[in-house]
Amino acid sequence: MEVLGVKMQFFTRYGSDDKVHTTVWLPEREILLTTMLWSSPPQLYSVRGDVFRDPREWIEGLKHNRDLQPEVLISAAARPIVGKELIQITLEGYLDGASYVLDQSLRGILGGKGPNELRHLVTFPAYLNETPNNLQNYGEISSYAPAIHYQCVGWYDNDAANLKPVAPWDEADRIVPLMGGRDAVLAAAAEAMEKKEYAWAAQLVNYLYRLDPEDPEVRQAKADALRQMAYVSTGANDRAHLMSQALALEGKVTIPRVIPPAPEVIAAAPATYLDYFRVRIDPEKSGETDKVLRFDFADGSSAGLHVRRAVAEFVTAPDEHYREPDMTLAMSGETWAKIYLSQATPADLIASGDIEVTGDAAEAARVIDLFDRYVQEEAVVVPPAATSPQR
After folding, report:
1. Average pLDDT over residues 298-316
2. What is the rounded CA–CA span in Å between residue 332 and residue 338?
3. Pair 21, 35: CB distance under 8 Å
């Protein structure tokens, strides 16, 4: 199409880190506008958590960019490049970096390597490191290969000993005595720090942290190790996680594990958030409960929860459910938001008239109380330290 007299061609087939990528090509001027090229390797996995980013999509998109043979490349995620030859060299080095991570990960999988082994085996050869756009200043490729392994063949590394591992806290409880106890582990971690073996120091002290995350000496030892790891990390994402958790261990920052939606968002779609609410059922509290709750919201929508012991089934259409509701709760979206965010108890909202219950009101309140409450102070990555030393 023509935009202000300039011919433009739009390509939407290939994605990068998003699912709505668009490459724009100006054929008469040989100018390419893209977000396929970054100032760091294609981020095939985000440590903050994201859906799988298929390397094949990014690779094919880069091939498409290269084959257009642009004279000028303008990227939203890197410096612009001028000159057909330089662009071709840059794109091929970048394309080969992404292809290397994918193919060597697959090669390792065929060789029986597990995700943690791939983390250490898939590293750039020197010539790929020399491509400026392959500088690992945002993400680090050590975290990409495990994600590819999980997507291709799952978490199992083909070592049968890892099929039934003991729980992490159980492992720590067993291994710390074998290492000579708390003080011996701390001494070993300090020795590792002296040798600049920061990752090993963090791994050692983590056994103690699992046993007592409020131990001030353990927290500081872990913070020291994470801080040094941050100092030598090239990737901004890795460095941010390491440094932030070091500060949190020292009580200087708080890192939320969960950031709930705003009340207005919940109130605008109460049935949707009733569905999300189901995963908060506490199986230890629910016991033998078998109750159907119908929710009639002020916006005209209705939905339900069928609590069957340890499971809460979301009922999209209560009128079509095989069981009649035991209780019906009528409320506004704003009232449901208060329950969802644990800003008020069901009993209080029933007593105030914000919730009108048909059926046993006390039983309705009890069933809703079977679900986890959101407590902001507890929804953190690193729990706060005790006010006084425990040791």
Report:
1. 97
2. 10
3. yes
Mean pLDDT (whole number) for 151-157: 93
Q: What is the DSSP string of 291-352?
A: EEEEEEETTS-EEEEEEETTEEEEES-GGGSSS--SEEEEE-HHHHHHHHTTSS-HHHHHHH
In the chain, where does the domain assigned CATH 1.25.40.880 lie?
168-249
* 2-153: CATH class: alpha beta
Cβ proximity of 12 and 57 under 8 Å: no
pLDDT band at 208 (very low <50, low <70, confident <90, very high): very high
Contacts of 138 (CB under 8 A, 6+ apart): 38, 39, 40, 43, 235, 236, 237
Q: What phi-psi label fits residue 53: left (phi over 0), alpha (psi between -120 and 50 degrees) or beta?
A: beta
Confidence of residue 279 (pLDDT cuts 50, 70, 90): very high
Type of residue numbered 99: S
The pLDDT > 70 percentage for the chain reads 99
Query: What is the Cα–Cα distance from 34 to 48, expressed in whole angstroms?
Result: 24
pLDDT at 246 over 80: yes
Q: Render the burial of 11-42: b for 16+ CB within 10 Å, e for the rest.
A: beebbbbeeebebebbeeeebbbbbbbbebbb
Give ∠ CA 79-85-86 in degrees, rounded to 5. Answer: 25
Say what the pLDDT of residue 11 is. 93
Q: Does domain 168-249 have CATH number 3.40.50.620?
A: no
User: Residue 390: what pLDDT?
Assistant: 39
The chain-wide mean pLDDT, for the chain, equals 95
DSSP class per residue in 132-153: GGG--SSS-GGGHHHHHHHHHH
| Cα 377 to Cα 256: distance, rounded to the nearest angstrom | 9
Query: What amino acid occupies position 50?
Result: D
Structural fold of domain 263-368: Nonspecific Lipid-transfer Protein; Chain A (3.30.1050)
Phi, psi of 285 (to 5 degrees): -85, -35
Q: Does residue 19 have a pLDDT over 80?
A: no
